Amino acid sequence: MKKLFLILLACMTIACEQIIPESPEENEILDGPLKGLNTSDQAQFLAGDVAFNDEVFSSGTGLGPTFVATSCGSCHAGDGKGHPFTTLIRFGQTASNTPTNLHIGGPQLQNRAIPGYTPEILPEGTPFMKLTPPAVTGLGLLSALTDEQILTNADPYDLDGDGISGVPNYVNPPAYFVPQRFHQVANGRSIGRFGKKAAAIDLHHQTVSAYNQDMGITSTFEPVDPFSGLAVDPEVSDQTIRDVVFYLRTLKAPIQRSQNDQQIIQGKTLFSQIQCGDCHTPEWTTLTSDIVALSNKTFFPYTDLLLHDMGPGLDDGVTEGSAETFEWRTPPLWGLGLSPNSQGGSYFLMHDGRANTIEEAILLHGGEASTSRTKFESLSAENKTALIRFLESL
User: pTM of the entire structure?
Assistant: First the structure.
């Protein structure tokens, strides 16, 4: 009997091994915490993880009545980029620092509604921009940089003559924004760093706005219901907001894959040679942070967090803060090669997901990026492949 039991146990073990897939390598997934979090940090990270990925709102818990999504995770599956199905539509400001929202629900269109209500529709001819939700990993490292560090790369008048004139987006801060020691304020405005046009100053600003504009969820920070325009009781607690912000601050950075592959090394060299790194700044180092795991860390996001003129082809006629209609924040490139994992197996790149390959995204670059695009076009097929393989490794 014992022998039979051992045989059955062995068969079951083999069967389970064949059924249960192997755990993915850490560099093949985007979610997961930073290394070095203490016990208290880990507990808050998990609380934020549950609120971000597991909590799904309904009409009974404050959703809507008009909305874009029912949860944070539905726009950022696996903490990655969104799909066209979750693309946001912004409208209302067609010149920098001059909001002209057409109705109460602006600046974002709520294109879904709970039963008994009608989704919003933009009047014909209204300028708008589509924004594909970004990946959210590594944001804490970007948030730990100081405004002074970001301004180091700003060159609004192109004094060095390289054709690159990155500028910050100066944003009117919300009433609840509390400047930290590393923030710089100019004429009452603060420097934005998150969002496609860098319209969110910090992750608290970004999170509160997302709850309110994406899901119609009010908080003490943003008590105005976007549907009615009236202040209502909070539908999400301050603690949940804090937990989600902490979760976003302590998500790990994407990990590059196959770093020692010679073709990828060649692609990295080409990336620098054709001046992609002039905007997609490869390396940063944080200073001291209130979260130890974010302090004095060198990381590789490939962004300068500044706005750049991307040419008429990417001018959607709408802006945010001090940004112009043709200006876009340099998006981080880390995690780029894992984008299809959260985008249904395909690429949907650029601010609105219009590019279905990395090469197509490069060729859509205009304005300040025209020189780099032209240099890419002149590369041999072999070198183009190496460059794209490098980008896929990020």
Answer: 0.92
